[in-house]
Amino acid sequence: MVSYSPLTAELKAIIADGLSPDSSIVDRGNLVEYSSDASTLSYLPELVVLAGNTDDIKSLIELANRYNFPVTPRGGGSGLAGGCLPSRGGVVLSTMGLDRIERIDTGNFIMKVGAGVISLKVREAAEAAGLFYPPDPAGMDQSTIGGNGATDAGGHPA
Ligand SMILES: Cc1cc2nc3c(=O)[nH]c(=O)nc-3n(C[C@H](O)[C@H](O)[C@H](O)COP(=O)(O)OP(=O)(O)OC[C@H]3O[C@@H](n4cnc5c(N)ncnc54)[C@H](O)[C@@H]3O)c2cc1C
C-alpha cells in the first residue's frame, strides 16, 4: 500500500496559494463537517478545498502529483459506502461550488452542468425545458450529479 506523508503547514500554504479567489480552503475548525457521509465511517481530512472552478481543480491535482498527497472528491456526501472520505488522509475536494447549470440543448437532449449541481435541480431544469431526466436515485435532493456519475446511482430497480 502506498503511504503518504501528512500535509505540512508549508504544503497547505502552497495549496492555498495555487487557488483563485473563486475557491477557498477549510483548515482545522470545520474539518469535521467533511469527515463523514451517510455511512457509519469517519475520517478527518487534513485540508478541504472548496472548488469554485475547474481550473483550480486542475491546479490542485497537479500539486497532488508533484507532492504526492491524496485528493478525495466529495459531492453531496450522501454516499453509503464512505467513498468521499479521506481514508488515506490528504485533501477532500468539495465540488459543491460547481453548482451552475450552464446550458440546456433541447434539440440534442444535452445539459451542461457543474459537477456539484444537486441532482434534483438537474431534474427540475430538464422539466422546465420540457424534457425528462430518467435517473431517480432516492437521495437526489442531497446528491450531486458528479456523485451520481461516480457511483452510477440511478434509482431503485423496478
Ligand atoms: C436517503 C438516501 C437515498 C439514496 N438513494 C440512492 C438510490 O436510490 N440509488 C443509489 O444508487 N444511491 C442512493 N443513495 C446513495 C447516494 O445518494 C449516491 O451514491 C449518490 O450518487 C452520491 O452522490 P453524492 O454527490 O452525495 O456523492 P458523495 O457521497 O459525496 O461521493 C460518493 C462518491 O463519488 C465520488 N465523487 C463525488 N463527486 C465526484 C466528482 N465530481 N468526480 C469524481 N468523483 C466524485 C466521491 O469521491 C465518492 O467516491 C442514497 C443515499 C441516501 C442518503
Task: Give a quick set of tags describing it.
4-stranded mixed β-sheet, FAD-bd_PCMH, 25% helix, FAD binding, two-stranded antiparallel sheet, 2 domains, Uridine Diphospho-n-acetylenolpyruvylglucosamine Reductase, domain 2, FAD-binding PCMH-type domain-containing protein, 158 residues
General description of the model:
- This protein has two domains: 9-94, Uridine Diphospho-n-acetylenolpyruvylglucosamine Reductase, domain 2 (2-Layer Sandwich), CATH 3.30.43.10; 101-150, no CATH class.
- The chain has helices at residues 9-17, 54-67, 119-128, 145-151, and strands spanning 24-26, 47-50, 71-74, 91-94, 101-105, 110-113.
- A hairpin with a 4-residue loop joins strand 5 and strand 6 (110-113).
- The chain has four helices and six strands.
- It is α/β, with parallel strands linked by helices and 158 residues long.
- The strands form two sheets. A four-stranded mixed β-sheet has the order 1-2-4-3, with helices on one face.
